[in-house]
Structure formats: C-alpha cells, structure tokens
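Continuing from the previous page of notes. For each protein in this section, the sequence appears first, followed by its structure tokens. Read the first protein now.
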Amino acid sequence: MLPEQAYALIFAPHPDDAEGGIGGTMVRWAREGKPIVLVICTNGDKGTNDPKIKPADLVKIREAEQRTAAECMGVREVIFLGHPDQSLQDEPGFRRELARLIRLYRPEVVATTDPGRRYMTHPDHRTTGRVVLDAVSLYSHNLYAFPELYFEEGLELHRTKEMLLWGADAPNCCLDITDTFDAKMSALHCHISQFGQPSPERSKRMRERYKQQAEKEEFELGESLHRVQMMGPPPPPPATPPPAER
C-alpha cells in the first residue's frame, strides 16, 4: 500500500541543512496541515573535527538531533538514506533512489539545495541538488528511466508541480517566515553537535539574516529561494497496466 501523499518532499544532503534553508517555510506548511516528508541523504558521519568523537557515534547523535528538529517543525516523516558523508555521486543507484521516493510520495512541491551555487559549496550539496533536479525533470515521470519502479513495484509516474531551491545565488521569491522564525530556530538549536549550545547572539544574527532577505517585502522575515515551475501536462498513462499488487 502506498503511503499518504505528501504535499512537500524535502531532500537535504545532511542533517540540519533543511532547517537552515527552508525550515521556516516547512513550519508554515505544517501549521496549514500540509504533510511534509524530509529525506536526509547522508548520515553526517564526518561532520566534526573533534578526534574524540567516533563517526559511528556521530551518526547516532545526528539522527537523534534531526528527529527532534523535525518534531519542532511538524514534519510528518523523516527518511534517512544513510549514505556516508562526502560520498554522494551522480550515479544510477542514487538517481533511482530519489526517483522512487518522488513516485512513492507524489509531492506537489520538491525542495532541495541549489546545485548551481558558485564557489564555496559542499560537494554533497552540489550532487544532491543536481540529482533531485534530474529526478523531478525526468526520472520520476519517464517510464523507462527506471522501468522496474513501474513494472515490478507498481509505482505510477509522477510529475511534480513546483521546485524550491535554497542557497541560490539568484533567488526569485521570498517566503514569509515572520511567524515561524522562532520555530525554525528551535529546530536549528536541536543540532548541538554542529552549532553548540543555543545563544541569544546566534539567534540575533540569524534574525538579521532573514530580515535582510525580506528587505524588499512587506513582511519582516523571509527565506529567499529559487522557484522553478514545472511545465507541461501530466505524463500519459502507460500502455501496460501496473501490477495488481502493491
């Protein structure tokens, strides 16, 4: 049986990335009753410079932090793909994994990090963004991209309506997080392994950042994103019906 359809499917390279990029918007969606599924692509096992922390222990810490942060944002479900940190590659296995999740949850909106950001950016961010873009624009609604998803698993083709990219060099929209900023910060504060203990100074700096992003808007605080409207009609039904059992 298929899971409940998600309004938004969020693909984050590491734990904590989604909170910083689109956390305030995720909180707003959740408050509006829109189901959100968060996918964490790597296990974050290299996210420290402390030689006393073993990577296997860090994985457990970061997963627990992410689950708590997701609860703060009202996220329905968190999926951990478990790829090692700094290892993501644009290869068929990863493409299939993301295409499968899009067909499984059938989201109206897919959000991820912008792969086109120049200069200083983590390679996992570039890879995640690029593969998600390809999955949305092709793999999730092309029958023979991964035919086993349809013929063996019975997953229908799906065309997403919209993509939102955070961390973009050229954002084209700003979404209001004035009323959800505190919840966004509560979620970020859960990631103590990455940011240390919460402090008023950090919250003040973050508030100023999102105030600057909304300086041309009528609201006080906003998340700047690049919105991509997915064009074209929905994919036609295949000639061969899917398997009866799911």
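Done with the first. The second protein uses the same format. Note its length before scrolling.
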Amino acid sequence: MIKVSAEDLGVIVSKIGDALMLHEKWKENFQRTLACKLQPPEADLSESAHEQCAFGHWLYSKGNAHLLSLPAFKTIEAMHREMHVKVRNLYEKRLTGHITAVEDYDTYLEAATAFRAALLNLKERVAFTLHNIDPLTGAYNQSQLLPELREEQQRQKETGGAYSLFLIDLDLRDINKHLGRSAGDKVLQAAIASVRQALSAKDRIYRLEGAEFVICLPGKNAADTEQLKELLLAKIGGAVSAITAKNEPTFKINYSIIELEPGAYLEELLDKAVRLSYTINL
C-alpha cells in the first residue's frame, strides 16, 4: 500500500528525474571548482548547504513535509545531507591551504555516487508503484495479484508457511443512490485507508473491480485471519459512519476468508472465495 496519492507519485517521479540532472550539474561544478582552485559558492560552504541546492529547495518545501516522514525519503535526506558535509569539508581544507587528500576525495565521491544511485532506485520504485496502484484507494491493481500469489505458491512449495486471503466487497449501492457517487468514493477511500492502518507492512491490498478487494496476509492462517477480521470490519464500519452518520443509508460488506494452497488453481480459488462469502450489515 501507499500513503501518498497517485498525483503525488507522478510529481515525485518528475522531481527526482530533475534532481538527477541537477545533481550531475552540481557535481561537475564542484569538481571543476576544486580542480581549478576557484572560489567555492557560498551556498556550498554553509551548514545548511543541503537545504540551499535545487534538490534541497524541493525536498524541504512545505508541500513535502509528508514525504520526509517516509523511510525511503528519510534515507535520501540523510545521504544528501552527508554528501554536502563532505563537500564543505573538502572546500574548507583547500581554503586553508591543504592539498586535497585522495582518501578525502574518494570518500566524497563514494557518497555522491551512492546518493545518485539511491535517487535512481527511488525513482524506479515510485514509478513502478505509480503504474501499479489504484489512484482512488491506493490499493494495488488487480494485474499484480496473480503474479504475487504464484510467487507465494512457489515459496510455499519450497519452505511452507501460512498465507491467507481476506476478500471484501463493499456494497455502496444505497450510499451512491442517496448520497451520490462522490460520497461512495469517499467511503471507499476512507474504508481502505482504515484497513491499511490495521495491517502490517508486509500485507497488501489489491482492488479487483468496483468495490471488491483482496487483502493478502502472509504468515496468517484462516484462524489468524478470522481474528483479524473483527478488527478490519470494525475499522471499516467506523470509517463509513464518520461519513454517513447523519444519513445512515444501508451499508453491507460481503467477505470471505480462504487459505492459499501451493497446488491450487488461483482463478478457482478466488471464485470459491466469492461463492463462500458472508454478508454483514453495518
């Protein structure tokens, strides 16, 4: 699951692409300044140099506060800051008459290369996520479900282990009829966001079609999932009530739990799960 919108992801991909180009230009200017013994830019001598470069201006802008809470961006931020510290140290040593030591330069170069590699890797990961998520709910697209389950079946054959699927189908017909489709979309967003909060990092939610979702739960058997079900349904109910409390239209959830088996035909397994579904009114 993702915690930023598809629009945010598109902007991130674009900005990281720009950052990669700007990083190369900045790196070339630094190497030219150091080799030709030119006056270093004041910004690079500042302790806040990491905030003053083009990438820093974007990263630390008010609109990106939520990004800095994400682990991947925390790592990028730390690498970027450390790279600028090494550059400032090289400049300061040169300005005090010291010859640039090979080991000092190599340390900087290693940091700069690692930062660029991390940026490129992050861009590729964000681009992959952008093209494989549902923009409304942040759940993964259906196209990724069967490949993941096949990989899991292979792993089960090799090492065993539990793996369950929790299917939910949110019946939005009454909400759409009385409150409009925009309200139905809000309910869907809120419901899936509430489910996400109750899941672990290794769990995934896939949107099949309409308001049908499959929650993949590695490491959990049917009994484990049965216990988790109560929490997830309560989360969904709370999220829906927060939006529809004053109107109280009928809201139903169809759900089922099924364990993944190494030799099962996946299409038949999912069909079976739909046929065995239960209905709860919230």
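What the second structure shows: The longest strand covers residues 163-171. The chain has two domains: 6-130, 140-281. We return to this in next week's lecture.
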